[in-house]
Amino acid sequence: MATWLENLVGTSLLSKDGEKATSELAGKSVIALYFSAHWCGPCRRFTPKLSEFYSKFKDRDSKDFEVIFVSADRSESEFTSYYGEHPWLAVKYSDSDRMGFDGTLAKKYKVRGIPSLVLLDGATGEKITTEGVQEVYGDTSGEGFPYRPRPIGELVPTKAVNKDGAIVEIPGDKYKLFYFSAHWCPPCRRFTPKLIEWYNKRKAAGTDDVEIIFVSSDRDWGGFDEYYGSMPWLAVPFAERNSVGQPFSRALGIEGIPSLMLFSAENELINKDCIGAVQAGKSFPFLPPNVVDLSEGISVWGHDVNSVPAMIAFLENADDDDQTAVEEKLEELASAVKANMAGDDEPEMIFLTSKEDDEMSGRIKGLCNLDLGDSIALLILNLPDNGGYYVKKLDDSEDPVEAAEAYQAAFRSNPESLTRLQLQS
C-alpha cells in the first residue's frame, strides 16, 4: 500500500544522483515542500537562504527533515538549470500534474504566490505550517523548527503602549478588538476614521466593554508614529512588531489589511472579520453570522469567496416569505457545515445571500455573466478550482428552499453532475 507521501508526490523523486524512491524518506520527521521557480526574483533570493539552513540543520538532533522542490518553471531547461542550485530532492518535471500553480500540490496547499515552503509531519502528512519562508528567514538558530503553531491564546499580546507612551497591561476584563493596519495601506486609512468614530461614540455613551489594540504593519517608526497619532486606543509597541505582532498575525492567518478581530476577555477568538460589522453599524459584540449578505461583505467565519467554495442565493426577485425561507435554509446548511469543522479547518462551503442589486452583487453577476431577469438564482463559486462556478436559475414551479438544499447536496456528493462554468481572465 502506498504511503501518504507516495500518494502526494509520486513513487519516485529526482535527486542529485538520479531518481530516488520516495519510500526512502520513511522515518523523516518533517517533509518540506518548496514551491519556487527560476523566473521568480524573491525565489532566487530565498533559495540560498534555505540551502544554508538545510546544510546547517538537516541532520542535526531531531530535525532530520527533507526538502522537495515543486517547480513552477515554464520549461524543462529552466527547471534543470534552477534545480542545479538546489541540494535537495525534486518532483520530476515530467510529473506535470503535480507541478506549478495549477498542479495538485499547489491546489492542495492553496499556494498562490512563491516562494512558499509548506512543512508537513513526516509520520502523518498533517500540515504543520505554510509559513516556512517567513520562519526560515527569521531563524538563525534552528531552535524553533519545525515551527509548530502555538495556540493562539498564548500569542495574544498582553502589554501595549498607551497614548502617553507608557507600557501598560491590556485590560483583562474587556473584549479586545485587534486592529491590523498600516499607514501605507489606502483601504486602512479609509477605514480607520470609521473605526475611530465607532469607538469614540461608545466611549462618549459610557460604554467601556471593549479595548482596541493597533497591531502595526508599518515599515518604519515614522509611519507608525504618524498613523498611531491619529488613533485613540492602545497599540502593540512598534519595537515588538516582529517578536509579538508578526507571530500573532501569522497564527491568525491574516493575508490582507485592514483586519479587525474580536477576542473575549479570556483571549478566545470570537470573530475574525469585524470590519463589515463596524461599517454596517451592527450591534456589539460582533458575533460571527453563519450567513452573510453581499451588501455586508464576501467573508463568513473569516473565510471569503476567493478561498473556499461559496453558495450565493440571489433573492432580489424573491418575495419576503421566500427570502426569509431561503435564509433559514442556508442558516441550517451553514450550521451543519460549521458543526463539522475542527479547530482552524476551512469550511467545505460558505453561504451568502444577495437581496439587493448593489455594487458587490453586480460585480459578481457581471463576472459570471449572470442575468437574473425575473428569477431567483443559486450560484456556487469555486474560485480555488481555477475560477470554476455553477449556476442554477429557478423557474416559477421550483421551491427555492428545496432547490438550495438539493444544489448544495449535488455539489458535495457529485459535482460532475452539475455544469461547470469558467471565469474568464
List the helices and strands and how they pair.
Blueprint: H1 4-9, E1 12-15, E2 18-21, E3 30-36, H2 41-57, E4 65-71, H3 76-83, E5 89-90, H4 104-108, E6 116-121, E7 127-129, H5 132-137, H6 152-155, E8 159-161, E9 167-169, E10 175-181, H7 186-204, E11 210-216, H8 221-228, E12 234-235, H9 241-251, E13 259-263, E14 269-271, H10 275-279, E15 291-293, E16 299-300, E17 303-304, E18 310-314, H11 320-339, E19 350-354, H12 359-367, E20 377-382, E21 388-393, H13 400-413, E22 421-422
Parallel strand pairs: 3-4, 4-5, 10-11, 11-12, 15-19, 18-19
Antiparallel strand pairs: 1-2, 3-6, 6-7, 8-9, 10-13, 13-14, 16-17, 18-20, 20-21, 21-22
What do these coordinates show?
This protein has 425 residues and is an alpha/beta fold. It has 13 helices and 22 strands. It has helices spanning 4-9, 41-57, 76-83, 104-108, 132-137, 152-155, 186-204, 221-228, 241-251, 275-279, 320-339, 359-367, 400-413, and strands at 12-15, 18-21, 30-36, 65-71, 89-90, 116-121, 127-129, 159-161, 167-169, 175-181, 210-216, 234-235, 259-263, 269-271, 291-293, 299-300, 303-304, 310-314, 350-354, 377-382, 388-393, 421-422. A six-stranded mixed β-sheet has the order 15-19-18-20-21-22, with helices on one face. The chain has a five-stranded mixed β-sheet with strand order 5-4-3-6-7, with helices on one face. Strands 12-11-10-13-14 form a five-stranded mixed β-sheet. Strand 13 and strand 14 (269-271) form a beta hairpin. Helix 11 (320-339) packs parallel to helix 13. The longest helix has 20 residues, at 320-339. It is globular and about 70 Å long. The model has no long low-confidence stretch (mean pLDDT 92).
